[in-house]
């Protein structure tokens, strides 16, 4: 079994820098190569700052790298499918940043390519691997709050008006839902499964993207989820999971939480703390690195079937809200 996993990164934006920073904290994993589509200088600068021996000015060139074990894709949403398919063609394991792609059709193509090339693929939903979230799942499995009846989660901040940047640019997959609404959507999917009813309201900005999207999900077991995302206001960005015998509070920002509190009926609240010095990407890096060592083709915690369900849910929400990406949908 290979011990040391050598990583490549495609894309040199802010999230790539956070990933590279956390990669340094992971035992038996290291940054090996970096590729930028904009300039060799940017790739070289990134490589020097994060101690990568190889750097390139095109994504295709990264496959020249010897002993490349896995690639993290940190490009804009609209490039995820194309970049993933390129890696899979070269049979290099892939961790692709969320959202996996822009729609179900693209995700299905990615999944098929991973299976045809017998190559590992996972969506970078770091939330699934955060210890606070795992503890939340454990408490629910233990029956501490009884059957889950309602999930409430939000994510919001007041984004500066920079229409050329990715967040507000529809040509780069901008908008609240795909960028940050995916987190409340994923939490509901993780805890309650796929909904039987979806109600949505969106407000649109002058660039055409959804600035605010609120959605209520209903389930055949009579559970509900009240979820929202916005680029126009700073919200608590927390989650509350209500069960028949209590509830769990996941403190903000819930998708990367360090603290949760368990409230059981007629008992004193119990706090659980998970301090760390990293951004939190190290947990998903550890998962993928171990999967690659063991020769697995997908993660049991974040399997491809979940990514298919998540993008299906986002597609349904977009359809009901009227969120359209010209040239993609």
Automatic annotation (TrEMBL):
Annotated coiled-coil segments of the chain: none
Keyword Cell division part of the UniProt annotation: no
Key words, A-Z: Oxidoreductase
Xref: Gene3D superfamilies: Dihydrodipicolinate Reductase, domain 2 (3.30.360.10), NAD(P)-binding Rossmann-like Domain (3.40.50.720)
GFO/IDH/MocA-like oxidoreductase domain span: 134-248
Annotated ranges, domain Gfo/Idh/MocA-like oxidoreductase N-terminal: 5-122
Pfam families (UniProt xref): GFO_IDH_MocA, GFO_IDH_MocA_C3
GO terms for MF: nucleotide binding; oxidoreductase activity
Similarity field: Belongs to the Gfo/Idh/MocA family.
Name of protein: Dehydrogenase
Native source organism of the sequence: Emticicia aquatilis
